[in-house]
Amino acid sequence: MSGKKISWLDVFELSVKMVDSWLAKLLFNLKSWFRDEYYEPIGVDELNAYLHVWRNNVLPELAYTPEAFDCDDFGAYFKAWLTKVSGRNCVGEAIGELEDKEGNRGGHEWNIVIVKLYDGSVTALFVEPQIGEAFKKITSDGFIYHLKWVLW
Fold it and tell me: What pTM value is reported for the model?
């Protein structure tokens, strides 16, 4: 599926909606980087198909190694992989905090993807590359993601 490209400003607006507070939004404005002028959303079914491949074929070959291949490396690898296999620049690296079920927070990197929904609208979803799951803010197992800034 080849979709209509959208401007970096549209991607910025979709991304900043996922930031929690006005202060966090201000810092998001200062720290985020958009390296392309236009971005091409990926269809939700296509994203799900690629996530299936990621979980079953790519992820089993990757091993978490503290400092050497940790969350930022998974995020960078998934961004490069999805861009290559889909032929679209629909994915960025999301930087922020991960909150566990007990309310503890820690720095984390994951991905943010621009997705075209069934009704033709475009939205942003998070993808946790270490488990291959797409979600809005909370994973299926209850972890909450707090976006601080992005590298597109």
Answer: 0.94
Beta-strand pair 105-116/42-43: parallel
Helix, strand, or coil (residue 97) = strand
- pLDDT tens, residue by residue, 105-117: 999 999 999 999 9
- The alpha carbon torsion through 111, 23, 26, 129 (nearest 10 deg) reads 0
Kindly state the helix (H) or strand (E) to which residue 30 belongs, with its residue range. Answer: helix 22-31
How far apart are alpha carbons 17 and 102 in whole angstroms?
Answer: 25
CATH value of 30-151 in 3.30.460.70, 3.30.830.10, 3.30.160.70, 3.90.870.40: 3.30.460.70
